[in-house]
Amino acid sequence: MKHYPFVLFYLFCNVFIYAFQGSFWVYLACFLAFSTVVIWGSFDIGLGYFVNSITHKRTKIKEVALTFDDGPTEFTPQFLDLLREHRVKATFFCIGKQIEKYPETFQRIIADGHTVGNHTLSHSHSTGFLSAAKMTEEIKQCDEVMQRYGNITTPLYRPPFGVTNPNIAKAIKNTRKKSIGWNVRSLDTIINDERKIYRKVTRNLKKGSIILLHDTSEKTYRVLVDLLVFLEDKKYSTFTVDSITNSKKK
Ligand SMILES: [Zn+2]
């Protein structure tokens, strides 16, 4: 998988040379095709184009992972109450700066027995354009905040916006993280209709699915209320993401 960009680049160079002898439009079409593949590869975490991300668990039993990104926030405590009520453990990919804002909530996530993962210090909108050194800093500084407030270290990393590229791949390697993706996307930060979000998640659920949610709104909380009932009805149990990486070490 890792060599895909290079193979593609090689093929592109060949096409490029031919194209230059041909028309400008052939060149342009090739260039656009190449760019599309690269951009698509950067955003689609399931492709594993630049980084091999874990997107699901290989399992024969009916189990799924609930993952919550971008917290802790003011909404996180109610998520924790609900999960506790249902005796469900989840994985929280926390942003360093959010931990600094809500250190007690971060400590409660850990105390409640959930798994935490690194989601960078600042979740920068320019994540896709940062240098490998800057990306490494983003991850390391989040690690430091987690250590300071939670006395915890994590091998798990989730790329902000699911974006991966060669610089991010280097940063993941430098910090020895495991990149964690998803195969069920709720789009809960984009879609407003709670029923739509609920349907999107439940429709695509399979054994071993990793579900991407955000503990950043009342809306997602209400989706979770129904989702937990759905999981119980359909006899799904839940796993935390560290159970995949732990069993892989054996
Ligand atoms: Zn995020």
From TrEMBL:
Keywords: Membrane, Transmembrane, Transmembrane helix
Domain NodB homology: 62-239
Keyword Transmembrane helix belongs to the record: yes
TM segment ranges: 7-26, 32-52
UniProt cross-references to SUPFAM superfamilies, sorted A to Z: Glycoside hydrolase/deacetylase
InterPro entries named in the record: Glyco_hydro/deAcase_b/a-brl, NODB_dom, Polysacc_deacetylase_ArnD
Presence of keyword Transmembrane helix: yes
Top-rank taxon: Bacteria
Gene3D superfamilies, A to Z: Glycoside hydrolase/deacetylase
Pfam families cross-referenced by the UniProt entry: Polysacc_deac_1
UniProt protein name: Polysaccharide deacetylase family protein
